[in-house]
Amino acid sequence: MDLARIPQLKHSNSDNFFLLSGPCAIEGEEMALRIAERIVTVTDKLKIPYVFKGSFKKANRSRVDSFTGIGDEKALKILRKVSETFEVPTVTDIHQNSDAEMAAEYVDVLQIPAFLVRQTDLVVAAAETGKVVNLKKGQFMSPESMKHAVTKVTDSGNQQVMITDRGTMFGYQDMVVDFRGIPTMKAYAPVVLDVTHSLQQPNQSSGVTGGRPDMIETIARAGIATGVDGLFMETHFDPSIAKSDGANMLHLDHLEKLLGNLVALRKVVNGLG
């Protein structure tokens, strides 16, 4: 995959990792623009190629009363406004075949959720839009099996594909990252490490997913040391009020220091040859 083909992606020649980051879900225009402005400021300062992330709807919820979105078209229009306002590309996840064509009108990267990455029709529908496709590795899948998901995209005539590792189920209520899988999957496509989702603690009795945000920098540093091409991190100016995945989000106030440390580490890793 050629990063330079992602529309409006800045700093693609900086030799830095690239970043997919934003809120878990689009909760409204003001919050999306506020978060995007802060991340754009930081990534421009550090010369990190940046893609704004926000889900236009949340289909995978533990409870029927969980937040699912503000309306598909309304949220997608907000994603477009973020892109136009800050001149950055955007990514959102899709859940059914009809989402692919609809979302492709508004965003630059279509993301296949981990629990749907084996759904052939969905993957092919995303690929056939011609957009970059981000395949999240299933929590139940081996790194080696992601080769077949990538092949579904390329066999559909789309070479613009990447893989995101978001951890593997460990028992019923925890996730772990097997860093041995990073070089394995890099043989198939560029690899992104989803730092915040890797720290989820799903299947809690409350029906609300838990998390370990205190481990975000630990996992992110390990990913950079292992040679990931990009990082994925959800962030919010107040995770305690986020309508989705607040328990494992990075507080926006901590983003600049974390990314600065990771850029420094990346330089060391690059220097090792």
TrEMBL record:
Membrane-spanning segments: none
InterPro entries: Aldolase_TIM, DAHP1/KDSA, KDO8P_synthase
Keyword Transferase attached: yes
Family annotation (Gene3D superfamilies): Aldolase class I
Entry-linked SUPFAM superfamilies: Aldolase
Catalytic EC class: transferase
Keyword field: Cytoplasm, Transferase
Pathway(s) of this molecule: Bacterial outer membrane biogenesis; lipopolysaccharide biosynthesis; Carbohydrate biosynthesis; 3-deoxy-D-manno-octulosonate biosynthesis; 3-deoxy-D-manno-octulosonate from D-ribulose 5-phosphate: step 2/3
GO molecular function: 3-deoxy-8-phosphooctulonate synthase activity
Compartment(s): Cytoplasm
UniProt-listed Enzyme Commission number(s): 2.5.1.55
One record GO biological process: lipopolysaccharide biosynthetic process
Domain (DAHP synthetase I/KDSA): residue spans on this chain: 13-262
One Pfam family hit: DAHP_synth_1
Reaction catalysed by this enzyme: D-arabinose 5-phosphate + phosphoenolpyruvate + H2O = 3-deoxy-alpha-D-manno-2-octulosonate-8-phosphate + phosphate
A cellular component term, taken from the record's GO annotations: cytoplasm
Family affiliation: Belongs to the KdsA family.
NCBIfam families per record: KDO8P_synth, PRK05198.1
Protein name, per record: 3-deoxy-8-phosphooctulonate synthase
Organism field: Aggregatimonas sangjinii
